[in-house]
Design a protein that fits this description.
By secondary structure, the chain is α/β, with parallel strands linked by helices. Helices cover 18% and strands 30% of the residues. It is built from nine helices and 41 strands. The strands form seven sheets. Strands 12-15-18-21-24-27-30-33-36-39-41 form an eleven-stranded parallel β-sheet, with helices on one face. It is elongated, with a radius of gyration of 30 Å. Bound molecules: uridine-diphosphate-N-acetylglucosamine and calcium ion.
Length: 454
């Protein structure tokens, strides 16, 4: 059975008061539409279709090849939005799953249950509902005396009696892919707002004598739709809790889950301990037995096993095993630290590989460099890699000892076992096992002793 998801993402999201299209607002580091897409893929067999409108270009760019898009312009309501997918889908899908792209907590498993309900239903459609004390502006699910679903009534047109109904329309539907397209055309234009409401399709099914089934959800949190930034913060907190719980159940210790910020795609090995105020972002992969934080930000980086990272900022970096970083280290794109490397206080590494056992304790900048195993980088060493126009490489061999405050003026090579004296300004290659010194300070004149100001 072919099933395709249609995600509605064309609305303006006026209540967000934002220049960014609503569905691109990130939750746990991933745009809302990304979460919706993941859930939809889990429950359907074909590539999803996203209905875009407001900010169509930006949304389409984000989606890349992950979905097909159709444009709805102007946005005339959720029913009208689904109609835009007809040309792509009519006669091509047995089941059409429709959901709103502003529900980032909705699980793929829930949509799977919805699809299963509709597979057994043989009627026109099935939809997700939930029982809640606080209706949050959701449409009310109206049932007849026999319990059969009759209609969905939007809050602002509901009678006082309908307003008291606790069963709500969550915003997930699974349609019979043959019946849907003609039924959409029969949705009346709403007299107040001039829109075509998808929710009115329930009454059309009932009039056609076709059953409408509900999949009742029990997790209220999953149903939160984001209309304002208050809702956005609610889903952020809820998703963070969900992500953190999953890691803890997988064997990761979080000292304070409420102060640990792990984005949706991050992976972490067991017995890693994460201290508070740590942010793990993007496509970060972390191995086992590490100690990370407090006060650490890691983005798009790969960390091996048994590393210690304290109060540092890593982006696009790779750490092998047993590496120690920080406090106050900054690793930028292309920083690669081998086994047992120690990179200490106030160091910066960019586009460089430090082989196993390199020690770089204090205040150094290493850029565009290759450093051999067990080399010691003295305090304050700097690779002068930029001449104002171009970057140049520095190659340092194994077991090299770089004296404190050495300036390595690139392009430059230092052979294995070389040494530099403190304060050396090295402008020419140094052969292996050779000592280079230079720039000693000279006494140039006698000074008058300064008097202390009183
Ligand atoms: C909708 C439902 C309501 C349900 C609630 C659950 C309708 C009429 N109402 O209300 O029953 O309880 O969701 O969250 O469907 N969109 C388009 N094109 C449009 C209008 C909207 O693509 O012309 C998209 C929006 O981008 C959004 C989604 O559809 O992602 C839902 O629209 P929204 O305006 O948020 O609907 P609600 O008022 O929340
Ligand atoms: Ca909504």
């Amino acid at each position: 059975m072919k099933s395709t998801a249609v995600l509605l993402a064309a609305g303006q999201g006026t209540r967000m008061k934002s220049n960014l299209p609503k569905v691109l607002h990130p939750v746990a580091g991933k745009p809302m539409i990304g979460h919706a897409l993941r859930a939809a893929r889990q429950a359907t067999t074909e590539t999803p279709i996203v209905v875009v409108g407001h900010g169509a270009e930006e949304v389409t760019r984000y989606l890349g090849g992950a979905a097909q898009t159709v444009v709805q312009n102007p946005p005339l309501g959720t029913g009208h939005a689904v109609m835009q997918a007809e040309a792509l889908l009519k006669g091509k899908a047995d089941l059409v799953v429709v959901c709103y792209a502003d529900m980032p907590l909705l699980r793929g498993e829930t949509l799977q249950r919805l699809v299963e309900t509709q597979q057994k239903n043989r009627g026109a459609l099935s939809l997700l509902t939930v029982m809640a004390e606080n209706p949050r502006g959701f449409g009310r699910v109206i049932r007849g005396a026999d319990g059969a679903l009759q209609a969905i009534v939007e809050e602002y047109v509901a009678t006082p009696e309908q307003l008291r109904v606790k069963e709500l329309n969550v915003g997930g539907y699974c349609f019979d892919g043959v019946w849907l397209w003609d039924a959409l055309r029969r949705i009346p234009q709403n007299p107040q707002k001039g829109e075509y409401y998808l929710t009115d399709i329930v009454e059309i099914a009932v009039r056609d004598g076709l059953a409408v089934q509900a999949t009742l959800m029990d997790d209220l949190e999953e149903t939160i739709g984001v209309n304002t930034r208050v809702h956005l913060s609610e889903v952020e907190t809820a998703l963070r809790r969900r992500i953190n719980q999953a890691h803890m159940l997988d064997g990761v210790t979080l000292i304070d889950p409420a102060a640990t910020y792990i984005e949706a795609d991050v992976t972490i090995g067991r017995d890693t301990v994460i201290y508070p105020n740590t942010f793990l972002r993007g496509a970060t992969e972390i191995g086992a037995g590490n100690q990370i934080g407090p006060n650490t930000i890691i983005r798009d980086s790969k960390i091996g096993d048994r590393c210690k990272i304290l109060a540092s900022d890593l982006e696009g970096a790779t750490l092998e095993n047993d590496v120690e970083v920080g406090p106050f280290a900054r690793l930028r794109k292309g920083a690669h630290l081998g086994d047992h490397v120690h990179m200490g206080n106030f160091g910066e590494v960019k586009d460089s590989r430090l082989r196993a056992g390199v020690k770089m304790g204090h205040f150094s900048y290493i850029g565009n460099a290759q450093i051999g195993a067990n080399t010691n980088i003295g305090a304050g060493t700097i690779t002068c890699n930029f001449d104002g126009e171009r970057k140049h490489p520095t190659e340092i061999g194994e077991d090299v000892f770089i004296g404190s405050d050495t300036m390595l003026v690139a392009p430059l090579k230092l052979g294995d076992g070389a040494r530099t004296g403190a304060g050396a300004v090295v402008t020419k290659d140094v052969a292996e096992d050779t000592l280079a010194v230079g720039m000693p300070a000279r006494a140039i004149r006698k000074l008058e002793r300064r008097k202390k100001k009183s």
